[in-house]
């Protein structure tokens, strides 16, 4: 499945995901985790894992939530989004887990 820019690259490892999360946090974006069992290019609405991580200050905080989501939903595709509250957009979005 090709869902976004990073999907054309090999799967990101934990360190590469952590670097992307750190960039997201450095830019002041709010991380949120979404998942879906059967992704569809026409389906723009995925289920959100908990609430957005407003209090996340480090990549490890976000990685821990991604792991919790993987444990709860191992058969789902999981993506991380970065929400910009100033512009009210999602400038960052990429898949972090595929079953």
Describe the overall structure.
27% of the residues lie in helices and 27% in strands. By secondary structure, the chain is α+β, with helices and mostly antiparallel strands. It has a four-stranded antiparallel β-sheet with strand order 2-1-3-4. Strand 3 and strand 4 (89-97) form a beta hairpin. The protein is globular, with a radius of gyration of 13 Å. The mean pLDDT is 90.
Question: How does the SSE layout of this entry go?
Answer:
Layout lengths: L13 H13 L3 E7 L10 E3 L9 H14 L4 E8 L4 E9 L2
In short:
With 99 residues, this protein is α+β, with helices and mostly antiparallel strands. It contains two helices and four strands. It is globular.
Content-based structural category: alpha+beta
Helix content: 25-40%
User: Which residues form runs of ≥5 with pLDDT under 50?
Assistant: none
Q: What is the CA-CA span between the terminal residues?
A: 11 Å
Instruction: Kindly report the spatial arrangement of strands forming the biggest sheet.
Output: 2-1-3-4
- Radius of gyration, CA atoms, in whole angstroms: 13 Å
Global geometry: globular
Average pLDDT, to the nearest integer? 90
- Share of residues in strands: 25-35%
Biggest sheet descriptor: 4 strands, antiparallel
Number of strands: 4
Q: Would you list the SSEs in sequence order as H and E?
A: HEEHEE
């Amino acid at each position: 499945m090709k869902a976004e820019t990073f999907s054309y690259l090999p799967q990101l490892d934990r360190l590469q995901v952590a670097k992307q999360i750190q960039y997201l946090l450095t830019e002041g974006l709010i991380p949120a985790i979404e998942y879906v069992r059967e992704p569809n290019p026409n389906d723009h609405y995925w289920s959100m894992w908990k609430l957005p991580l407003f209090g996340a200050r480090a990549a490890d905080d976000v990685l821990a939530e991604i792991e919790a989501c993987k444990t709860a939903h191992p058969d789902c595709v999981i993506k991380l989004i970065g929400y910009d509250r100033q512009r009210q957009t999602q400038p960052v979005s990429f898949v972090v887990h595929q079953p």
